[in-house]
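#lab-general

N.A. 3:47 PM
ok so I finally got the sequence cleaned up, no stray characters, all 266 residues accounted for. can someone with queue access submit it? mine expired

B.Y. 3:52 PM
send it over

N.A. 3:53 PM
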Amino acid sequence: MLKIYPVLAAVGLLISIVSVIRKSSFFNFLGILILLFGLLKSAGLFIPPFPGQVITMYMAMSIFSFLIYFSIQEETFQAFLEPMRAVLGDEDKKILRVLIVFIALPLLTGFITYTKVVPVYEPPVSARIVHPEPPSQMEFRGKTINVIGLENPLRKDTANFAKNVEDGKKIYYQNCFYCHGDDLDGKGHLAQAYNPLPLPFRGGDTIAQLPESFVFWRVSKGWRGLPAGSGPWNSSMPSFEDFLTEEEVWKVSMFIYEATGNKPRT
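B.Y. 4:20 PM
back already:
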């Protein structure tokens, strides 16, 4: 995109030179503005680009300065206004008047408005680790838990396995589906409000790649447990140890794995 601005500057320079030769103040004014804008934007090819607000302020000051310059003498000012007066008033310029006033100007206004309001999604300033390495230990409501080698104790209770999964389902739909979706696909009602989007649990590239101890740690600690050295983080994951017991976290983990047809990685 930056490569077009030197061309724009060259076009502005050409318009300005031709208008000086033909003694057209109005087109000289336009040519100078196009030249200045092209030069300011082209600077980004060689140095860090100027902020948009700086360019806008500079262009506004240039417009007012050149309007003052071209209106100092009455004769020069009348020559400056002549092209506008001709387009708006001459009978033989009806087609040009329609093209400029009713087509070109509305399109230009719409384009400028669109470029100002359209959201811009930029990549993070550094690579983001999707699955950060958990700590060797964590605190859960004052209790120290060794994360390395940690296993879900409820999986050993085979007699109550189905009941624990059902309990986990209730916990999931009370707390998690708003973001991660009722189909565990990361498309919950609130998902689009977050950047990055909540991860889907279905498929083979999220929890299928993780040990259950990782899921326990992430659910328990949320964004507060993310390592500072792996930033920048932009997570909205709550710390569910504030709302769920240790057993409830294990139950919701069991449900997530069972509902998606995945098994914890060992």
